[in-house]
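PROTEIN DESIGN WORKSHEET
SECTION A - STRUCTURE
LENGTH: 179
TOKENS:
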């Protein structure tokens, strides 16, 4: 009898369990297979299933052999190792007038887990360093520098996967500059 070993599978990927027992005489015994996620029975198709929820699945193989029933199990742990992605959901201006009030754009986070993740957004005037951090109040700030402004957006899912720092920016229109 050769059943798959315990393993980890990335969320939304398939797990296949094509297995059988072969007697010394060459007779093939195909097991009855059930898959559970907690108490929930998981639907299988073509000797596989898609791991759709983070956590542990139990695959149980029951072989009806001449000497009696033999049961084996495989633990399949669904993992999420892919970082979320950030998308701008509202437009980001390319150029802004000095002295204007800017509303911080809305950013969304997409993640394979399907969980709702709120990104962290920081605004910088110039290089991304602490002394250039811009004060944001009620989702707005005033452009008071001719430096390039940068929105630094980050997010982390419940599996601990962090986005790379995503930056989006705009420049301040110089005095006397026309569109």
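SECTION B - SEQUENCE
RESIDUE ASSIGNMENT:
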């Amino acid at each position: 009898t050769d059943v798959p070993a315990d393993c980890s599978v990335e969320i939304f990927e398939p797990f296949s369990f094509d297995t059988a027992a072969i007697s010394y005489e060459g007779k093939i015994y195909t097991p009855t297979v059930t898959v559970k996620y907690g108490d929930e029975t998981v639907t299988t198709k073509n000797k596989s299933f898609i791991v759709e929820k983070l956590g542990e699945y139990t695959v149980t193989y029951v072989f009806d052999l001449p000497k009696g029933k033999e049961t084996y199990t495989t633990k399949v742990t669904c993992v999420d190792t892919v970082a979320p992605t950030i998308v701008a959901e509202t437009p980001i201006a390319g150029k802004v007038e000095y002295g204007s009030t800017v509303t911080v754009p809305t950013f969304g986070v997409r993640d394979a887990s399907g969980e709702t993740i709120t990104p962290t957004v920081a605004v910088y005037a110039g290089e991304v360093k602490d002394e250039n951090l811009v004060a944001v109040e009620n989702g707005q700030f005033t452009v008071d520098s001719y430096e390039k402004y940068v929105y630094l957006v980050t997010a982390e899912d419940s599996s601990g996967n962090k986005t790379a720092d995503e930056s989006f920016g705009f420049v301040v229109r110089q005095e006397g500059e026309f569109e």
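SECTION C - NOTES
The chain has a mean pLDDT of 91.
Residues 35 and 42 are 5 Å apart (CA to CA).
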